[in-house]
Amino acid sequence: LKLKAINKIYLNRGPGSFAGIRNSLSIVKAFNLTNNIDYYCYSFQDFKGEEDIKYENIPDLCDKFNIKKNLINPIYLI
């Protein structure tokens, strides 16, 4: 897989561990800044009412639920 072949990244923003989410967000932001790769930051909590959520459906669900691109709003476990 070549980096130039990637034009979108979908990132689960949590809930999860603070360090894991921060590391993932940092890498995705770096891809965005250096290669203009758009990202969509979602949580399964964003998809209320959906019963059978599969990872391959995440792009369609982000469109359906109006998940904004290049916006991060993390959810951390305390």
What keyword list fits this structure?
single chain, 78 residues, alpha+beta, two-stranded parallel ribbon, 2 helices, 2 strands, globular, Peptidase M22, ATPase_NBD
Characterization of the model:
It contains 2 helices and 2 strands; from the N terminus they run βαβα. With 78 residues, the protein is of the alpha+beta class. It has a two-stranded parallel ribbon.
Question: Considering DSSP H and I runs of 4 or more, what fraction of the residues is helical?
Answer: 25-40%
Task: Enumerate how many helices there are, as a single number.
Answer: 2
- The total tally of domains equals 1
Biggest sheet features: 2 strands, parallel
Low-confidence stretches: none
Number of strands: 2
Helix-and-strand structural type: alpha+beta
**Beta-strand share of residues:** 5-15%
Gap between N and C termini: 36 Å
Order of helices and strands: EHEH
**Arithmetic mean pLDDT:** 88
* Strands in their spatial order, largest beta sheet: 1-2
Shape: globular
User: What value does the Rg take, in angstroms?
Assistant: 13 Å
InterPro entries: ATPase_NBD
Protein name: Peptidase M22
